[in-house]
Amino acid sequence: MVLSNCKFCNKVFNKTSSDECPACIKKRNDALSKIDDYSFGKNEVNIGELAKHTKIDQEYIKQLLCEGKIKSIRKLIAVCEMCEQFTYVSTVNFLCSNCVTELKSVKSNKDDGLMPKSTEKPKFVSTKKQLRMRTKMDDL
Ligand SMILES: [Zn+2]
Ligand SMILES: [Zn+2]
Question: Most buried residue among 2, 8, 71, 121 by CB atoms closer than 10 A?
Answer without folding.
Answer: 8
